[in-house]
Write a structure and sequence with these properties.
Blueprint lengths: L2 E10 L4 E3 H5 L6 H8 L3 E3 L9 H16 L8 E5 L10 H8 L6 E5 L5 H14 L5 E8 L12 H4 L5 E10 L5 E9 L7 E2 L10 H7 L10 E2 L1 H22 L9 E4 L4 H10 L11 H4 L6 H11 L8 E8 L3 E8 L1
Parallel strand pairs: 4-5, 4-6, 11-12
Antiparallel strand pairs: 1-7, 2-3, 6-7, 8-13, 9-10, 12-13
Helix pairs in contact: 3-4, 8-9
The chain binds acetyl coenzyme *A.
The site of acetyl coenzyme *A has 24 residues, from helix 2, helix 6 and helix 8.
């Protein structure tokens, strides 16, 4: 059995900055409410006509990650792409990346685990590498939320939170079993599937012909629904559990954490976890203030920024943790 390790990281966010004050011109909201509840100051929203999509942003992040990995694109053996906002209902964006990068006909897998998407994707890649099936895997998390949000007062409790962007990582085989990804931990609780949900264009509840016939402009099933407080309460519990699960599995104490990168769901959730684990400010990385919640892209964007800022060094114990729609949650313990 091998380990896998991250050898290249990249991120891409659209240029268009949307501040909380910009949002207050679209809906009944304000900077104070958004900052107090979420910590978010601004987010990036793709500008119409810019050409940015979930797939193209993923490609831009991937190109940087591949270059930094110092490998050729043709050395990539497999692609894993996590998103909840694919360009097309099917096929998923993995194959678009394979085509856009001009990579030979390797497999491309799409992961549908929302805010936990990147953690799930890393776990899949790690295990393919562990077994020796593949050597180099490109893992991407990318989201274009802004085209699918209800930007009226009706949708304000959801739409102020989400931002667009992409992050990517290149994983390779590591022969030293005490380095790289040490373990991954995945969970779900489908009982709460509809507490954070986008019903349409799923076909379980309605038939396409009925949707077309109704053509109802007030049909909210095309906008995300979130039971915010319920999600918040579950998130803080599950984040804590799954971080502890990873530490215990590797015989590590909380003080061994050099860097915790939580999914950027809400700054208040990250602060709660930081306080609970008694971590210093330099042991937790947050950038939700600048980008909002970019779902599957949030961890790879944050991981890339932390690494670019020199906050992750060789030998560090890095913990990634996520919670989101499903409910799904998970953690990754890495010896950098
Ligand atoms: N601006 C101003 N007022 C608002 C806004 C807004 N944008 N949104 C809601 N309000 C109002 C509400 O109408 C309500 O008013 P009322 O008291 O008169 O009825 C009041 O503010 C409080 O609303 P709540 O929804 O109760 O606010 P809450 O404190 O719960 O904060 C939030 C909402 C920020 C969404 C929080 O619940 C949260 O962060 N939840 C967790 C989100 C999360 O972790 N998601 C997981 C990842 S996402 C994924 O997987 C796709």
């Amino acid at each position: 059995m091998y380990n896998s390790k991250i050898i290249g990281l990249g991120k891409y966010v659209p240029d268009n900055v949307v501040t909380n004050n910009d949002l207050s011109k679209m809906m009944d909201t304000n900077d104070a409410w958004i900052q107090e509840r979420t910590g978010i100051k601004e987010r990036r929203w793709v500008k119409e006509g810019s050409g940015d999509t979930t797939a193209t942003m993923g490609v831009k992040a991937a190109k940087i990650a591949i270059e930094r990995a110092g490998i050729d694109k043709d050395d990539i053996d497999f692609i894993v792409f996590a998103t909840l906002s694919p360009d097309m209902y099917f096929p998923g964006p993995g194959v678009q990346v394979q085509h856009a990068l001009g990579i030979k006909t390797v497999g491309a897998l799409d992961v549908r685990n929302q805010c936990s998407g990147f953690v799930y994707a890393l776990s899949v890649a790690d295990n393919f590498i562990k077994t020796g099936m593949y050597k180099n895997i490109l893992v991407i998390g990318s989201e274009l939320h802004s085209h699918g949000l209800d930007k009226t007062t009706r949708g304000r409790s959801v739409s102020v939170i989400f931002g667009d962007g992409a992050g990517a990582a290149v994983l390779t085989r590591e022969e030293n079993n005490s380095k790289g990804i040490l373990s991954t931990h995945l969970h779900s609780e489908g009982e709460h599937a509809e507490e954070l949900v986008l019903i349409a264009p799923g076909l379980g509840k309605r038939w396409v012909n009925d949707i077309l016939k109704d053509n109802d402009p007030n049909d909210e099933s095309y906008f995300p629904y979130m039971n915010g407080q319920f999600v918040f309460k579950n998130a803080v519990v599950r984040f804590s559990e799954v971080i502890m699960e990873g530490l215990i599995k590797n015989n590590l104490q909380v003080d061994a954490i050099d860097m915790l990168i939580p999914h950027q769901a809400n700054l208040r959730i990250a602060q709660f976890i930081q306080k609970k684990f008694k971590l210093n400010d330099d042991q937790v990385f947050n950038n939700i203030q600048k980008y909002g919640n970019t779902t599957a892209a949030s961890i790879p964007i944050a991981l890339t920024e932390a690494w670019e800022e020199g906050k992750i060094k060789e030998g560090d114990t890095v913990v990634l943790a996520a919670f989101g729609s499903g409910f799904t949650w998970g953690s990754v313990i890495i010896k950098w």
